[in-house]
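HOLO CASE FILE
Compound: uridine-diphosphate-N-acetylglucosamine
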Amino acid sequence: MKFVHVVGARPNFMKIAPIMRIASKCDNIEQVLVHTGQHYDNNMSKCFFDELGIRKPDVNLEVGSGTHGEQTGEIMKKFEKFIMEEGGDIIVVVGDVNSTIACGLVATKLHIPLAHVEAGLRSFDRRMPEEINRLLTDAISDYLFTPAEEADENLRKEGIPKEKIYLVGDIMIDTLIWEMGKTPNLDKPLFEDIELGKYAVLTLHRPSNVDDKETFKGIAEALNTIAREIEIVFPAHPRTQKRMEEFNISFDRNIRIINPLSYKDFLRLYKNSKFVLTDSGSIQQETTYLNIPCLTIRENTERPFTITKGTNVLVGMKKDVIVEESLKILNGTQKKPLGMSLWDGKTAERIVKILNANL
Ligand code: UD1
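Model generated. Tokens follow.
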């Protein structure tokens, strides 16, 4: 049986790693790994392969950056050509990036079964490119592997037959548990000059936050106010670094701006922090799992269970709310996570077992 796995952008790598690791133990499965090249900088791509033990991709389509249409179209053209030569019994796509929908469309049109890992998440905000990618990928997938009951419900409401939906748990947590098990020094500070628990961590890269000058300036003002109380470490995404220059956004000296970190270094950074400010999707889950307070700088989230059952608080983009919620944490208020079922590090096992039994 030939599994063709697709990765393209940073958040895909930690999702494919556990699936490939488990599938490699099955004698009947041959694996092919395709990197679309959506992300190409070393610290956005290659360093994750090295750390997470993902083997070198069989092919890199080298599509690079572009508008959504250019990027999606280019991936489709190149992936279709590759698959027409290579074939495959199942194509596995993960998450919600442009590579996910582009390769999903190619699979479906070539009548190759499609598996979507992390299916069913919805922010209900169709201005987010990821929301369109999620909706469309789920609509054409044959196997929809979901992380939480809420995702199953979303899919059922959209009319997806329940036979296609498999609640398997959160694949990101597989990688988190695996990394924590093999890395002994996670409780050592990443920077010698910052004390454990005495700093906050920030990530920011959503187009809705950083591509609009006024919105980005407003968020920066909030962060500069918080930085008077606590140092903030900010690994800045390339998109964000470009916008900072373009919009001339200045940050307080107590905000330490660094380049994007590898998986392990970033884990060390946020695991030992006081709290996290982010607009990322997966970080909302990882902080919930590790019981670290998380403030999400967005109007909505496709992971509402991190709010109802976890440590996440949605703070939007308004300066006052971002500052107020940060101060609450600094003053000792902290949500207690209730725990998520199936966040047990065995999601990849369940996925491979289901595919093995059904294909
Ligand atoms: C993509 C995903 C987003 C995910 C994010 C994680 C889509 C629609 N968005 O957003 O869901 O949360 O990845 O990082 O797929 N760039 C570099 N080097 C790189 C990659 C990008 O410099 O290795 C710069 C380029 O200027 C590029 C910009 O970052 O134009 C944005 O990259 P792109 O892949 O379009 O989307 P992301 O914002 O990274």
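CASE NOTES: The chain has a mean pLDDT of 96. The longest helix spans residues 68-86.
CLOSED: yes
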